[in-house]
Structure formats: structure tokens, C-alpha cells
Fold this sequence. Notes:
12-stranded mixed β-sheet; Fumarylacetoacetate hydrolase, domain 2; binds magnesium ion; 4-stranded antiparallel β-sheet; 18 strands; 2 domains
Amino acid sequence: MKLATISDNGKIKAGMIVGEEFVCCDESKNATTAVLAMISSGNISEWQAMLEIAPRKKLSEIKILAPIPYLLRDMICVGKNYYAHAKEFFDSGFDATQKETIPSEPIIFTKAMTSLIGPDDAIDTSIDPTGSVDYEGELGVVISKTARRVAKDDWQDYVFGYVIINDVTSRELQKKHNQWTIGKGLDTFGPMGPYIVTKDEIDDLPSMQIQTLVNDEIRQQAEVRDLIFDIPTLIETLTLTGTLLAGDVIATGTPVGVGIGFSPPKFLKSGDKVTINVTGLGSLTNPVI
Ligand code: MG
């Protein structure tokens, strides 16, 4: 199933994407939080049962929003989690931590939930006074239920599904403030979408491809198997001492090919367009203003 939140002439609705249509499962005043509530309830069969009877809309007639427009809390993100990207970031001079090229333990930070935008919403570079806006195409993992002390082998039980994330970053702010909260948390710097795909629809997670294009030029291309710390390890690490909640999103890290990997750096500028394609998860495109 592909879960989505949409705007139909300004009215927020929640439901599923099937082919070129949106199936409306909730158009109540609570529709903005309906996807999150459905994940928390664990009762996906309720929406499944509506597939044949619920009203439908053509995708061309609606606007798709971030599938969870208001996360429960800030997104959980992983830094330097692909070998070649860890090296390019270290070598770029923007890595204020400068501790080690390849991390020996997962680097975890959070990205402000208020940075979230949906497909086709604009990434606003005018908010970054340093003009160093960079893209990071990533696989996002959506957590299904409260998770504490999860053993690696049990990780699948705690995954609801997957979604595309663009961890847009101001490189100068990331460097200047040492910690990454400000550099990653700018308004409009958190594109997510177009929908959450439930885990049963993913046949071969390690073979999924992440591809990022800027103005139709391929900048990033990698497979999930290239992660330094895989998803089971991330879930085990995050729940060893803390708690993950239903609807939490983990952005698992970005592959090589970000703008600061080029010399000189290729920062995003007004008029650009960023597209991230992930196998089975569709395509997330955002204009840059
Ligand atoms: Mg990232």
C-alpha cells in the first residue's frame, strides 16, 4: 500500500495511491494526522477494506503533501552512512567534527519537523544567509510501533514502511555551529514523499536504488546495500538506550555525490529542480527558489 496525504482544492484528505488515482479513506477534520494515526493504530486492514468502495480522485486533480505532514517529533537522521560519501564530506572541509573519515559508530542527529515540505513544494534558498544549500537524497524508514531494546534480528517487526527524504542542508551553517541542528533544520529543508510504501511491497531492500538528479543531471546513485550501518543496526542502536515511536521517521543517510563533493561545490540555486528516485518508492521532486 502507498499511503498519502493530499490537498483537494484546499481540503486535506488521507488515503492510498493506486495507479494514477488517490483513494480517499479519511476526509474528516482529522485527515492531516490520519496517516500517523493509522500507523499508530496498527489497523491497516481498515483502509485496505475501503479500497473498492472509497471515493477516488485522479492524481492530476489533486496536490500530494508530505505523507505525514506533521511528524510526532523531529526526524531522526544518520550522518556519514555511505563509505564514499563519508570520505567526500571529510575531504570537503565542511565536516566540523573532523574526528574520523569513516565513523566507527552511527552518527545520529535530528532534523526539525518544522522543516518538512511535500512534493513540488519549493526549497527556499533565501532562508540560508550563507548561500550553501545542498541536497541529500535518502531512504527514510517509518517505524510501526513503540520500540525499545530491539534485537537486530527482530528489526522487521518495528518497520511500517519506507519513504523518500531529501535531507537538505546549509553546509556553512552545518560547519559553523558544529552540531547540525541549525544547518539541517531550516524551514522548507525537509522534503518528504510522495507516499509511504508499506514494507510488504518491498521485495529486496538491499538492492533498492537511490538516485538524485539536479536539473536532470544524475548526481547521486547508490544501493541501500552500500550503507555503512544497515537498518537493523540503526534500529538496534537507537533502541538500545532510547525509544522509537510509531510514525517516527529515520533518514538513513545520503550516498556520494552531494554538492560539496564537487570542486568548486555545486550548491543549489533558485531555478534548480531536485528529483530523488528510489526503487519502489516513486519520485520526489522539489523546485528551488
Ligand atoms: Mg543526511
